[in-house]
Amino acid sequence: MTQESIIETGTKLILRVAFLAGLAYFLYLVRNTVILVMLSVLTAAAFYPLIDRLDRWRFSRTGAVIAVYLGFLTLIVGTVAIFIPLFISEVKNFAEAWPVYGNKLSGILSGLEHYFGSFGIEFNREQLFTEIEAGLSQAASNIVSTTVDIFSGLIHFFGYFFLAMYLSLEENGIEKFFLALTPDQYHARASEFAVRIRTRVSKWLGAQLLLMFIVFIIYYIGLSIFGVPYALAIALFGGLVEIIPYIGPILAAIPAVLLGLLEAPAIGLSLLVYYVIAHQLESHIIAPQVMKHSAGLSPVVLIVSVLIGLELGGVVGVLLAVPISMIAGVFVEDFLEKQQTNK
């Protein structure tokens, strides 16, 4: 290899690295818009089977899209109008009732403090109380500011909503979106990837939403039977964290069992048993039937993806972690298939 070719190759490599670094920095600057676009693509993928079915039932595509998205918007508005005020009200009521629960918790923690102290383990009860009270105070004070943030985010929501609707209105909107991002020579491969991604994500997302709703109902029934206060807020939290693979059921049980223990030890232990049974029922009976087309990724990959999503994007990052991992899995599968073919 001549010196000129070495210099040329090195120059091209440096330019490519600089371009990729600049692109990554640009995407970081517009990360909120990138997240919005990704949510739109995932929403369009989730609604594709339903719109396609309505289309086969001799609905016009425009009519099918309008019907589906109107139902989606009605569901969101109904949820915000009914559940969110109740949820906020229960959180505020719990913050106001904290002194009563704090006295009960103090007795439990005092016993733990003596127990750990007998083994020479330091357990600072006062510091824990200070952190809990600070967290509750901040949560209660942030309700108003959070509400303001929600209204200020309406523009982003409508941008996301109409972008998803536009992708659904196009006959092959998602495929065309991927084609617009790739050079002409890769269009055939990009179209194949788009179909595989759309199929896998749509089946998973629809099943996941159904599973979250079923789990919410199971939790709410159990909490209501045992007479636990703030049952709606705890059950709603449990239903939402169900989207987090493997860790979600544990997170869902923590506030329920703790609040049950504060009400009465028997209630707390009964709720622990109930949540264990509910988790076994969900993981061995309900989930296998609902999630027949799951992510298809190993538990380690899913958990690491969720942790990375939480670190990079907070709650939205957690929501996007699994579908992004599924999309990455499509490319990995294709790469491995090519490696096997070339052998």
Task: Note down, in words, how this protein is organized.
It is a single chain. The chain is mainly α. It has a domain at 30-171. The protein is 87% helix and 0% strand. It contains twelve helices and no strands. It has helices spanning 3-29, 31-56, 61-96, 98-118, 125-152, 154-169, 173-180, 187-225, 231-241, 248-263, 265-290, 299-342. Helix 2 packs across helix 3 and helix 8 (187-225) runs antiparallel to helix 11. 21% of the residues are buried. Mean pLDDT is 75; it is low at 143-148.
What is the tally of beta strands? 0
Largest sheet: none
Tally of contiguous helical segments: 12
Question: Could you tell me the radius of gyration in angstroms?
Answer: 25 Å
Q: Which descriptor suits the 3D outline?
A: globular
Mean pLDDT: 75
> pLDDT under 50 segments (min length 5)?
143-148
Distance between the termini: 29 Å
Q: Estimate the strand proportion.
A: under 5%
Structural class: mainly alpha
Q: Strand-and-helix sequence, N→C?
A: HHHHHHHHHHHH
The helicity comes to: over 70%
Secondary structure elements and pairings:
Layout: H1 3-29, H2 31-56, H3 61-96, H4 98-118, H5 125-152, H6 154-169, H7 173-180, H8 187-225, H9 231-241, H10 248-263, H11 265-290, H12 299-342
In short:
The chain is an all-alpha fold.
Which features characterize this protein?
single chain, globular, about 350 residues, about 85% helix, 12 helices, mainly alpha
